[in-house]
Amino acid sequence: MTDKLTVSVLGTGIMGAAMARNLTRAGHTVRAWNRSRAKAEPLAADGAHIAGTPAEAVEGADVVLTMLYDGPAALDVMRQAAPALRPGTAWVQSTTAGVEAVEDLAAFADEYGLVFFDAPVLGTRQPAEAGQLLVLAAGPADRRDTVTPVLDAVGARTVWTGEDGAQGSATRLKLVANSWVIAATAAAGEVLALSRALGVDPQSFFDAIAGGPLDMGYLRAKSGMILDGRLSPPQFAVATAAKDARLIVEAGERRGVRLDVAAASAERMERAAARGHADEDMAAAYYASFDDEPES
């Protein structure tokens, strides 16, 4: 198969749009669709064909890539695309869907004769735009050559976790990684909130931990976004982080594991979203610490 493919990208939000753009830059033919067409239209300037329906987007595709809100959304969109799907088409499913939802998505793939790849990514807006995502992927070894040009265009590295996408091994690893990201983000917000409450200059905390085992680039990055008011455009939105945190909690509960930090983080994200911060960076969960919005 030629390295230049026709790729259907379903879902062009923060991550999907960046992935579609990098696919066009790599020379692939991209057919993009988004529920809100306005979010997909800018990709036309990069050479992508903007489709009016999922079925139109997948027509003639060698690879279908989904980057949607959650598992049910991905399944709904693929059902809309079903009339135009060709048996044997590779489906790179990059939505953070949760373990149980992956089983439903894989069953759909089996029903329509698609080659299913469980392929969530690690990274936010900036690495997505630079094509530097870490792709976590599971799928049949004998069909990986089909999707490798796609994964190489959107990511700096692909980590293969298994040969059966239906088992969700890549999604399981993604949830483990996101549990750390979400916990660290919530902790960064609480550090700044407590500093404000106690009258402590946050810089004195950063100076105290500088260069030691407690120092952390991610802490400084998220804290800087809060302190400088750089919460839009988001790297990873509050609403999406809340959804992912709930998936993490549910995955633990189904297996007899109580994840108190993830549950509390989900509640913080949801509270921040309810206060109007849903579309800001997840660092805005900082505001969930206050009964009233603090002045900048």
Low-confidence stretches: none
User: What value does the average pLDDT take?
Assistant: 97
Largest sheet: 6 strands, parallel
Order of helices and strands: EHEHEHEHEHEEHEHEHHHHH
Record field, number of beta strands: 9
* Terminal-residue CA separation: 56 Å
**Which range does the strand content fall in?**
5-15%
Write the layout of secondary structure elements.
Blueprint: E1 6-10, H1 14-25, E2 29-33, H2 37-40, E3 49-50, H3 54-58, E4 63-66, H4 71-81, E5 90-93, H5 99-111, E6 115-118, E7 121-122, H6 125-129, E8 133-138, H7 144-154, E9 155-162, H8 169-198, H9 202-209, H10 217-227, H11 238-254, H12 260-277
Parallel strand pairs: 1-2, 1-4, 2-3, 4-5, 5-6, 8-9
Antiparallel strand pairs: 7-8
Explain this structure to me?
This protein is α/β, with parallel strands linked by helices and 296 residues long. Helix content is 49%, strand content 14%. A six-stranded parallel β-sheet has the order 3-2-1-4-5-6, sandwiched between helices. Strands 7-8-9 form a three-stranded mixed β-sheet. Helix 4 packs parallel to helix 5, helix 8 packs across helix 10 and helix 8 packs across helix 11. The mean pLDDT is 97.
